[in-house]
Design a protein that fits this description.
The protein is built from 15 helices and 19 strands. With 414 residues, the chain is an alpha/beta fold. The strands form five sheets. The chain has an eight-stranded mixed β-sheet with strand order 12-11-8-13-16-17-18-19, sandwiched between helices. Bound molecules: flavin mononucleotide.
Length: 414
């Protein structure tokens, strides 16, 4: 599982345990999450906003009525932005206001406005925690689907011993990591190919393309989040791939095919996102071609087609291909789907000024008789949506894992 790219809205309220939230931010950021801290005015009595800003690398939000930040990202946009809202520590006062559905400061308003899962980790004096009022508020929140992390038992800052301590940041990090996770692909081995390939002309030059590998890495992350074991076979890319994936670095199309075939035997899902070069020089040279030689023609031959090769195998994984197209996306994608005998084709539009490397994009997911449009959105969000789409298509009703293991395809299901 990974926290990479997860958008966590962390609420910090007026508890003596607020200092532990600093370590929590550090752990979440270290794991690749984006953390937006929202402090109650009382929380600022305990820890300075600047500490959180340094750790999260984002300005802390405190006020509901702030014209400047409302113009940039309103409280409603912030509520939509979050993949999860976590309040740690949550004061008794905060629990009461949430239970009542009050919206009289930024944090409580966000909690009402968000559709993301909400987790609260209460921290307070034992008597405050055991007070029937607090317990009634906690029960009301649990009834409404809020996840409440039970406070730890032990010696408290006030000198009392009992329940009320904020659990360790490491424990809270693990709770957040598991949040709302649908592990539908547990037990599945998925191969993702990503990035460009390079086809050498001579030791100094190559043919390649503009692919960055960002979408492939996002897909690997999304599959890991769903519980799959992921092998990421990638060409030369600059972004660091997830450390939770089994990464295999290759350079050429031939190497990518070889590494994919080697591993495809025990794989149930192949997502071929790499922008594999279509052609390669027929006769790459061992010596650098001199400029003075005036080479005007480069003889090219087609590279091996990874998807088509796998599509022809008698027993093959569920195949998802990608097609970068400049026009007629759906038609071109469907033609490729048939020609290569794959299950799903994902088309994205490229053009002179957009496509590879864009932060946001749209996808058209094409099968034999339907098309689904996703986006425009960030590649991370689209990757999650696409993995959900694949998961749903694999098995609308039954267990995905059983289905996949039973149905290593012997014929085109098209
Ligand atoms: C030194 C000190 C420590 C406090 N610690 C806690 C605490 O751990 N938990 C809690 O619920 N309230 C605690 N309080 C009380 C809250 O700060 C107070 O109820 C405040 O109104 C909470 O506001 P908020 O929920 O908007 O952050 C403490 C107050 C003081 C002065």
């Amino acid at each position: 599982m990974t926290l990479r790219y997860r958008k966590i809205l962390l609420g910090v309220t007026g508890s003596i345990a607020a200092y532990k939230a600093c370590e929590l931010v550090r752990l979440l950021v270290q794991d690749g999450a984006e953390v937006q801290v929202v402090m109650s005015p009382a929380a600022e009595q305990f820890v300075g906003a600047m500490t959180f800003e340094a750790l999260s690398r984002k300005p802390v939000r405190t006020a509901l009525f702030d014209r400047e930040v409302e113009m940039a990202m309103s409280h409603i946009e912030l509520a939509r932005w979050a993949d999860a809202v976590v309040i740690a520590p949550a004061s008794a006062n905060c629990l009461a206001r949430l239970a009542m559905g009050l919206a009289d400061d930024l944090l409580t308003t966000l909690c009402l406005a968000t559709r993301a899962p909400v987790v609260i980790a209460p921290a307070m004096n034992t008597a405050m925690w055991e007070n029937p009022a607090t317990q009634a508020h906690v029960h009301a929140l649990v009834e409404r689907g809020v996840q409440v992390v039970s406070p730890a038992v032990g010696e408290q800052a006030c000198g009392e011993t009992g329940p009320g301590r904020l659990p360790d940041p490491e424990y809270l990090r693990a709770v957040i990591e598991d949040l709302g996770t649908d592990r539908a692909l547990q037990g599945i081995h998925a191969i993702v190919t990503a990035g460009p390939t390079r086809e050498p002309i001579d030791p100094a030059r190559f043919i390649s393309n503009f692919s960055t590998g960002r979408m492939g890495c996002a897909l690997a992350d999304a599959l890991l989040e769903r519980g799959a074991r992921v092998t990421l076979i990638h060409g030369p890319i600059d972004i660091p791939p997830s450390s939770d994936a089994d990464c295999v670095a290759v350079t050429t199309a031939a190497e990518m095919l070889e590494e994919t075939l080697k591993r495809s035997e025990d794989c149930q899902l192949l997502v071929a996102n790499a922008a594999v070069a279509d052609w390669r020089p027929c006769a790459p040279t061992d010596r650098k071609t001199k400029k003075a030689q005036e080479v005007r023609t480069l003889e090219l031959e087609p590279t091996p087609d990874i998807l088509a090769t796998l599509g022809q195998q008698a027993s093959r994984p569920y195949l998802v291909g990608f097609a970068a197209e400049t026009e007629d996306l759906e038609e071109n994608a469907r033609a490729k789907l048939r020609a290569k005998n794959v299950d799903l084709m994902v088309a994205n539009r490229i053009g002179p000024n957009h496509g590879f490397g864009d932060a946001e994009t749209t996808l058209e997911v094409v099968d034999a008789d339907s098309v689904t449009r996703l986006g425009p959105d960030s590649k991370n969000t689209l990757a999650r949506q696409l993995v959900d789409h694949i998961t749903a298509r694999l098995s609308p009703a039954s267990s995905v894992v059983d289905f996949l293991h039973a149905a290593r395809r012997t014929t085109h299901s098209g």
